[in-house]
Amino acid sequence: MTESSKTQVFSREAVLELASQNPEKYFISIHENVYDVTDFLDEHPGGEEALKEYQIKDKFKDGTESFEDVGHSMDARDMMKKYQVGVLEHKKEQKHVSEHDRTQKPKEGVSFSFLVVPALLLAAVGIAYQLFLNRS
Ligand code: HEM
Fold it and tell me: Where is the Cytochrome b5 heme-binding domain (predicted)?
């Protein structure tokens, strides 16, 4: 596996196409990376069924959650690099997405002021009440 093939960028559709052109192969996706685990099926300590369940065939599947639920070791994470054939397009766009998220931030400011305004009003009423009590 060459370094450049590890960084090949796939859209989800492209992974599905790759899978349909190579029906004998087992492609899975974890952490937005694409792996060809065909040669690893027999060796996987978690059994081949665990990997087969996430085979990308007729529809796109994401094995990240299950992979993390198992709590794979650093050895396992190192090992998987060997089977990586590319990254998902979306991964490259993450920077863009987070920029987009940042532009959404003012919304948080609005919800924050929803808390501050009633708190200030409550404080003002309290002070007015104290003044009223002091006068009488
Ligand atoms: C390329 C991807 C993967 C690699 C290289 C890999 C590698 C490994 C390795 C080395 C172990 C032994 C324990 C450890 O060192 O953490 C393991 C265990 C396990 N794996 Fe994976 N794994 C991969 C994907 C998955 C996926 C997608 C699942 C889906 C559920 C899975 C399920 C399991 C389970 C259930 C065990 C536990 C076996 C046990 O403790 O009896 N693995 N895997």
Answer: 7-89
